[in-house]
Amino acid sequence: MISNKQKAEVLARIREIETFVISPGDGVTIGAVCTLVAAESAELAKSSDSLRPILRTALVINWRESAMESRCKRFAAMFPEISTLLALKRVMDKTKPVEFCKTHLNIRATTGKNPKYQLLKELTEGFLEYQKKYCESSEIEAIRHWSKNVRLDDLKNDFMGKRHGVGPAVVGNIRLCLGERVVKEDRHVIGVVKKFLQIDISPGEYNHFATSIRMDPRYLDCILFKYGQAKNISA
After folding, report:
1. What residues contact 136, with CB distance under 8 A and at least 6 apart?
2. Which of 60, 77, 163, 196 is the most buried if burial means most Cβ atoms within 10 Å?
3. pLDDT of residue 133 exceeding 90
């Protein structure tokens, strides 16, 4: 993918990213933060929670991570009885979209076409249909089965990829929430790779790139994303 000379240059720039102080007040670096994030993947990979990856993904796309975190914590605290996709679908089916956004998501929506609501509905209904079609024993197993078989290079023909709003970023975020060690091709990640690392990687090749430089894809994803956010770098 890249020459040995390029690899040395890339690794030097990555070390610069790792030592970037993301929190000046306490001197915390991006590398330190992302080491913890990557370590959490082992626990996520063992989780049986089917709602978490879907709710977090719907609420984080094109939104601040901090806003997503606060809304997810609020949802869990206020609606502990909604812990599965099936339970979520039942509530969404009997609640008007604008009211659901306000009451359950803490979002001020003016119409039922709110993009986060729409994505949540698409993902919820899609994975329940996927579970039924492939006879998976549980919702989380259905999501994990899909994740292992999804093809980013042919997403338009994928069971979930056909659904409105389900693009590479959504796929990547779900996989990260499942604890998979992957690089999500987010606009910040792509921007840092092209503008700071100064290399050209084809879509779908980011995991292979991580392997080629002997880095944990989940860790690489995190440092690239955090640096892109901090420096306002995006594709």
Report:
1. 130, 142, 145
2. 60
3. yes
